[in-house]
Design brief:
By secondary structure, the chain is mainly alpha-helical. The protein has a domain of about 60 residues. It is about 45% helix and about 5% strand.
């Protein structure tokens, strides 16, 4: 890629024209699936309808006043000339969002893991950024029947209900019981998961106990058959 890859395009008369400020349509030429995800979520939904970009000041959730009039495009998080996925994974989010969950992130165990990784002390992939949970990596099959991994840029894809995070995110590190208990604890979510869930989901405990009883009966049955 060089400058013309983003800044030059053919106009209606098939003449090359210089584009001073390329938009998301330029990104589509190389990152089609990522752009489609972005346009599906709240960040990009206005652009998908041909409207002006979404602005943090339009959000119902608390946003930083300093970012109120920022225009959300691909370049809002990635930057046009200094592409930095680490910045996009955390700092870009903290630039706009100002809810309790976001403010608590840098005091959370998740951020501790992220800090260790980016400082070189933690293993690659061991950190937990904002993007780890809200923009998870997913597998998809191309028309050529090839498997690729990409970042799901629709940040709403697993947000409501939050149990949708369990398979794609939480269970990469945690067990099912802990994951569901944590996601059901509103106060723990507000602290960005600093601490332990206040209570267990009863139905999960009952299911696990039933599984144990079934395994015990099966073990006894196997023993009886062996003795015979």
């Amino acid at each position: 890629m060089n400058c013309s890859g983003c800044h030059q395009a053919k106009d209606a008369s098939d003449t090359l024209a210089w584009i001073k400020q390329p938009d998301h349509t330029v990104c589509t030429s190389c990152h089609k699936e990522e752009v489609e995800g972005f346009l599906t979520g709240l960040h990009g939904m206005r652009l998908k309808q041909g409207m002006t970009p979404m602005q943090p000041g339009m959000a119902e959730q608390p946003m930083k006043p300093s970012a109120g009039h920022a225009k959300l495009t691909c370049m809002s998080c990635h930057g046009a000339h200094r592409f930095d996925t680490r910045k996009a994974a955390v700092e870009a989010c903290l630039t706009c969002h100002d809810d309790g969950h976001t403010r608590a992130y840098k005091a959370s165990p998740h951020f501790g893991l992220w800090h260790e990784e980016i400082s070189g002390r933690g293993a690659k992939g061991s950190g937990v950024s904002c993007a780890t949970c809200h923009l998870p990596r997913v597998e998809f099959t191309t028309p050529e029947d090839e498997t690729r991994v990409l970042v799901q840029h629709n940040q709403n894809d697993n947000l409501r209900p939050n149990e949708k995070m369990v398979r794609s995110v939480c269970m990469n590190c945690h067990g099912l019981q802990f994951s569901l208990d944590a996601l059901a604890d509103g106060k723990l979510i507000g602290r960005n998961f600093k601490g332990m869930p206040a209570k267990q989901i009863e139905s999960i405990r009952m299911a696990l106990e039933a599984e144990k009883r079934g395994a015990a009966r099966k073990a006894v049955g196997d023993t009886d058959e062996t003795e015979e």
